[in-house]
Amino acid sequence: MDTQLAPGLERFDGYDLQGWLSPEPPEGIVVPRNLRRQSDSPHELPADHFLLNLGPSHPSTHGALRCILELNGETVMSSEAHVGYLHRGIEKLAEHRRYSALATLMDRGDYAASIMGEWAMVRAVETLGEIEVPARAEWIRTAAAEVCRLASHLVWYAALGVDTGAMGVFLYAIRDREDCLEILEALTGQRMMFNYLRPGGVAADWCTEADLKLRRYLKKADEYLDEHWEALIGSDLFQQRVQGVGVVPHDMALSFAATGWVARASGIDWDLRRDRPYGYYDKLDFDVHTMTAGDVWARTIVRFDEMKQSVRMLEQLIEMGPPEGEHIAKLPKVLRLPKGEAYGSVEGARGELGVHIYSEGGDMPYRMRYRPPIQYHLALADTILPGQMLADAIVTLASFDFCFGEVDR
User: Fold this and answer.
1) Helix axes 135-163, 390-399, angle to 10 degrees
2) Which H or E element spans position 67?
3) How many other C-beta atoms are found inside a 10 Å radius of the C-beta of residue 91?
4) In this structure, are residues 367 and 358 in contact, taking their beta carbons and an 8 Å threshold?
5) How confident is the model at residue 67 (pLDDT cuts 50, 70, 90)?
6) What is the band of 73 on the pLDDT scale with cuts at 50, 70, 90?
7) CATH node for 90-245+319-401
8) pLDDT at 77
9) Rounded CA Rg of the chain
10) For the chain, which residues make up each domain, given as ranges?
């Protein structure tokens, strides 16, 4: 009896337990398009290709990612990423929120680095509304963003350790992340979904408790990062495990619109904080590290250096202190923007995070578009997985640091 198939699905082509011997497909078995169970090459034995559902509920997929892998033994022959298990509806919900309430939607996108999402949103609103942000608010935003970047990167480092067989570093990284979350909690009142940035500034001023906790953390931050280097990244075993794995060539990174550390690890020297400065970044001295290998090792080095630079920037911010003045601009209680469109972007924890809003006039956007950097990196990962061993595919996925609230949005 024939079964009704959904669009984009097809039956197996001639497969049973003997592989190539069956002229008819088994009843009712379907697979996504472009996945096959037998080799198409006449130079290979017609051995069975095994289909593996990696995820969507699996620790190594770092969220609700489902990868359908076609395996020839332990070798990945093809990969098809399936997303949408964590859909937030951010872009549609934004059409029914006032501009002052949009930032909280962004917290549900890249939930590991929420401050950056909020900042991209308010930058778009401020650009369209020609809102001048006080210097004190820019200082606070920059400090909060770099603390949030450290908290996010430490989660990536911890998970990378687990995926490469080093469970111990996970515990130490989470210890350090707690210090960062306590700083953000003292400042915003929340540990993750901050809802802290507002068009024209921030919801609450810099406080003594956040200042003391940040100063206390900075006294030991470099020492902690050195410990992490010795515990994992400086290990010969780790280096042998990740060098030459998951290579993203320079041209491929450009073609797939890679940004952030993924682009910089493939030789693309681009960082919005330096090249299109915003906030307080034009007053800070920091380096942008690049490499050319484009493998997991290169991405690890570039990202680890980002943490070192974040500590360096925070030390400079604390030394200069927040400037005098208000922490938020004086705006109408109900903010209305003129007709037009604007794009606001920041150097997020996972690459260039952008928000494009279109206004017809009024207090709500007519349309909103969320540019999630990880969605582009996921397409890269799906492209480079074929040809790798399954264990290397896991490490490759870990090196991209996916956050699926942002991908599915």
Assistant:
1) 170
2) strand 66-72
3) 16
4) yes
5) confident
6) confident
7) 1.10.645.10
8) 85
9) 23
10) 28-82, 90-245+319-401
The residue behind tokens 């540990």 is 191
Q: What does the alpha-carbon distance between residue 87 and residue 109 come to, in Å, rounded to a whole number? A: 9
DSSP assignments along 347-387, one per residue: EETTEEEEEEEEESSBSS-SEEEEE-HHHHHHHHHHHH-TT
Q: Please provide residue 357's backbone torsions phi and psi, each rounded to the nearest 5 degrees.
A: -115, 145
What six digits make up the tokens of 218?
Answer: 């900075």
In 175-327, DSSP assigns E strands to: 197-198, 201-202
Stated pTM of the model = 0.86
**For tokens 């111990």, what's the residue?**
168
Concatenated DSSP letters for 273-284? HHHS--TTGGG-
**Bridge pairing between strands 66-72 and 201-202:** unpaired
CB atoms under 10 Å from CB of 10, counted, come to 14
pLDDT tens digits, one per residue of 276-319: 999 999 999 999 999 999 999 999 999 999 999 999 999 999 99
Cα–Cα dist 251/345, whole Å:
23
